Amino acid sequence: MQTIIYPASGRGHANLGWLDSYHSFSFGNWYDEAKVHFGALRVLNDDRVTGGAGFGLHPHDNMEIVSIPFSGALTHKDSTGTDGIIKTGDVQIMSAGSGIRHSEYNASKTDPAKFLQIWVIPKVRDIKPRYDQKTFDLEARIGKWQVVVSPDESEGGVWINQDARFALTRLDSGQEISFTPKFKGNGVYLFVLEGSIEVEAAKLGKRDAIGISGTDNFTIQAGAERTELLAIEVPMLA
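-> structure tokens emitted (238 positions)
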């Protein structure tokens, strides 16, 4: 088994006024040669957008782009004709494929919106761009993994063009949970959203992360407070 710890304090940071963003991997003007990607996981941005602000129309291609709101809501428009709102409990994905243009704004004029923006390198390049979103029951992740992104639609998540899976859980104080990758050889990037955990002798707090590879299973124990976790399983690309 191989592990690498990613402390929250080691993330890149950009504050543009309307956008306050922390980067787990090299992004924009922030570059760290040791933090370019974890396998097929290329970007994990922890974003806060002020009321009425957002990202104007801009292009992407050949990337799987996932948005997970945690407070507030975002309005979304793109060149596939999609026009809608994503809110807490929703997970959105765009397969940028051969090329897509989109915009994303805070749906509120006054309250901030907080969300994760995550990019995964695709399995097949230049596919037809596509969009999907789904609302998940927050109670259904208490004490167990709730799959929210998967190439296997029978798991209930939004579809992704990669052998990758995202799962969320909420744990009580001291509770244990194990994780088993679906695809042999995949690694897991475990991101602490709230609370704290102990995993593979490492103690992690809020917004810390650990990359785990070379194992078929591992166990996590929550700390003294309620804990929320995001597990991102991805192929370990060179």
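The chain has two domains: 11-135, 138-234.
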